[in-house]
Amino acid sequence: MAKVFTSGGVAIITGGASGIGLALAKKCHGYGMRVLIADKNETSLESARNALNGDIAVFKMDVGRLEDWSELKASVDRDFAGRVNLLALNAGMGVRGASWDNTAAFQSTLQTNFMGIVNGISTLLPLVKQSAAAGDYASIVITGSKQGITNPPGNPAYNASKAAVKAVAEHLSWDLRAEERISVHLLIPGWTFTGMTNRAGPDAPKPDGAWWPEQVVDYLEEKMKEGQFWVLCPDNEVTESLDRRRILWTAGDIVKGRPPLSRWREDWKARAQEGIDGMGDPAQK
Ligand SMILES: NC(=O)c1ccc[n+]([C@@H]2O[C@H](COP(=O)([O-])OP(=O)(O)OC[C@H]3O[C@@H](n4cnc5c(N)ncnc54)[C@H](O)[C@@H]3O)[C@@H](O)[C@H]2O)c1
Ligand SMILES: *[C@@H]1O[C@H](CO)[C@@H](O)[C@H](O)[C@H]1NC(C)=O
Ligand SMILES: CC(=O)N[C@H]1CO[C@H](CO)[C@@H](O)[C@@H]1O
User: Fold this and answer.
1) Ligand 2 atom closest to Cα of residue 47
2) Most CB within 10 Å of its CB: which of 66, 160, 192, 200?
3) Of all atoms in ligand 2, which is nearest to the CA of residue 41?
4) Which ligand is nearest the CA of 95, by number?
5) Domain 10-238, CATH
6) Nearest to residue 146, comparing CAs of 234, 37, 53?
7) Residue whose CA is closest, atom 7 of ligand 3?
8) Is 144 in the pocket of ligand 3 (CB under 6 A)?
9) Pocket test for ligand 2, best of 39, 41, 47 (most atoms within 8 A of CB)
10) Is the CB of 147 under 6 A from ligand 3?
11) Domain coordinates of the chain in residue numbers?
12) How much distance in Å is there from the Cα of 86 to the middle of ligand 2?
């Protein structure tokens, strides 16, 4: 049901001023949708608006603040007659060098990556349902991360926030299972060249292994057409099959009683590699 990408429909995209969100905004705009991008970065909001010839609405907000969502809802009610066809809850961030003694980093990461999504659902789900009841199609796209599924070591705050995002997205899909005109999707990007991953400066070239954000949103659209909840994106280094085998290996830590994060442990690394390499593609069985 990619029926939401239709001319005149309304798209609301958080974190839409940069990266994956901006690529999605451009796609929606290209389909003739009315686009509102919400972001906390004023500079990027302005350049995004210019990139789309001023033909989109921008809204400065912090997705972690419920008050900002109330104001956004009021503006959607006023400017779009309360209509929402695509709600992309995509804003996300990571704090560099987050460590256990930095509880503030956990709080800010969870506030944006997790509460930003809860706040958005809580505030705008009534408008999404209202739009569907009026005969529209509507989709809610929630941006998670592979790090919330396979949980690699390095940044526990980010990984935990994305694990919570996955849990909430699954519940939303369950709660809306009887809604024939509303679909829910968990977007799980691979390595994507965006503001978040490009720390080498504005003119740095895209690393070969990474995808462009445009590839991610094309893949998203394809999976939405198929009616898939899980949008597990590959990149130029990791295939869909490898992702599926890594996910199964991670689940195997629990069922086989291996230590957690076995894939990265010195005493398990080689066995993990062998196990993942030797596994058939789980999707083929
Ligand atoms: N780039 C990747 O490789 C990758 C991989 C997996 C998941 N993701 C996820 O994709 C989503 C988009 O990230 P991106 O890679 O396009 O990064 P990006 O930094 O280019 O874009 C994220 C946007 O979100 C905005 N934002 C951050 N915190 C906000 C807040 N509290 N309120 C409002 N806006 C806020 C930023 O200003 C920025 O414009 C994120 O949720 C990220 O976690 C990215
Ligand atoms: C806002 O985004 C610009 C790029 O558009 C970046 O240079 C700047 O550091 C960002 N500001 C903040 C506060 O994150
Ligand atoms: C955005 C971010 O901080 N991502 C981190 C999530 O965790 C992995 C491993 O834990 C890190 O490599 C990423 O940098």
Assistant:
1) 5
2) 192
3) 1
4) 3
5) 3.40.50.720
6) 234
7) 155
8) no
9) 41
10) yes
11) 10-238, 239-284
12) 26
| pLDDT tens-place values along the chain, 285 residues long | 479 999 999 999 999 999 999 999 999 999 999 999 999 999 999 999 999 998 999 999 999 999 999 999 999 999 999 999 999 999 999 998 778 999 999 999 999 999 999 999 999 999 999 999 999 999 999 999 999 999 999 899 999 999 999 999 999 999 999 999 999 999 999 999 998 888 788 788 999 999 999 999 999 999 999 999 999 999 999 999 999 999 999 999 999 999 999 999 999 999 999 999 999 988 875
- The closest-lying atom of ligand 3 relative to the alpha carbon of residue 196 is 1
Q: Ligand 2 site: residues with CB under 6 angstroms?
A: 41, 43-44, 47
The DSSP secondary structure of the chain, one letter per residue, reads --TT--TT-EEEEETTTSHHHHHHHHHHHHTT-EEEEEES-HHHHHHHHHHTTT-SEEEE--TT-HHHHHHHHHHHHHHHTT--SEEEE------TT--TT-HHHHHHHIIIIIIHHHHHHHHHHHHHHHHHHTT--EEEEEE--GGGTT--TT-HHHHHHHHHHHHHHHHHHHHTTT-TTEEEEEEE--SB-STTT--S-TTPPPPTTSBPHHHHHHHHHHHHHTT-SEEE---SS--HHHHHHHHHHHHHHHHTTPPTTGGG-TTTHHHHHHHHHHSPPGGG-
CB-ligand 1 contact for 17 (6 Å cutoff) = yes
How far apart (Å, rounded) are the C-alpha atoms in residues 207 and 280?
29
Q: Which residue carries 């069985």 as its tokens?
A: 285
User: 138 - beta bridge partners?
Assistant: 182
